[in-house]
Write a structure and sequence with these properties.
single chain, 218 residues, mainly alpha, MetI-like fold, globular
């Protein structure tokens, strides 16, 4: 299948996987430790950080796109990187969209642990990496829920990636921005093809993560 201006649907799908996969990996790598730390520790200013995370979970993606664009624009603080209208800019935007979801759901998973869990861990003398591993093990289903939510938020996002990526053929066009463009052009057949691929990817990836989540429960 080919796009109306020459780019194959497969190429757009592979680019979507590359950009979204990189963004998801970064969001999870940063967000899970932050969520575990916020849930496990008490320190001054924690309440403000938690409120910021909760607010970030509902932040409109177009606002994220605007902030990233301002930062990466030629006159912006990161303009010298030359990342505007590149996949790197799209990854940054998607990370900022997914990160609050990962942190917030991880934080909630830690908060759902029995009240005496941390006391038991300390009483057993477990410290350092082993204590962190126990915490991850006990919250693993919640962590997988965080990954699923972040994946959904990344794959379905269109406003921010279009703003900072520019929807350039062969470079930054992904499934969501392609669907928007082809719909506006009245090329519904191609838009439907992209939509089918997007829905298929979302279902397969979410089903795989859900299977892992349910297996961990058993």
């Amino acid at each position: 299948m080919s796009g109306v201006v020459g780019e194959p649907v497969l190429a757009i799908a592979l680019r979507t996987l590359a950009v979204s996969g990189a963004a998801l990996a970064l969001a999870v790598a940063i967000g899970v430790p932050l969520g575990l730390a916020l849930g496990h520790r008490r320190f001054p200013g924690r309440g403000l950080l938690v409120a910021t995370v909760n607010a970030g979970m509902g932040l409109p993606p177009v606002v994220v796109g605007l902030l990233v664009a301002l930062a990466l624009w030629r006159s912006g603080p990161l303009g010298t990187l030359g990342w505007m209208y590149t996949p790197q800019a799209m990854v940054i935007a998607q990370v900022l969209i997914a990160l609050p979801l990962v942190v917030g759901i991880t934080l909630a998973a830690v908060g759902a642990l029995p009240a005496d869990f941390h006391l038991q861990v300390r009483a057993l003398g477990v410290r350092g990496p082993r204590a962190a591993w126990l915490l991850v093990r006990e919250t693993r289903r919640g962590l997988l829920a965080a990954v699923i939510a972040a994946l959904g938020g990344i794959l379905s996002e269109v406003g921010a990636v279009t703003m900072v990526g520019g929807n350039l053929e062969g470079e930054t066009r992904v499934l969501t921005s392609g669907i928007l463009m082809y719909t506006q052009m009245g090329r519904f057949e191609t838009a439907l093809a992209l939509a089918a691929v997007l829905l298929g990817l979302t279902f397969v990836l979410a089903a795989a993560l859900t299977a892992v989540q349910q297996a961990s429960r058993r």
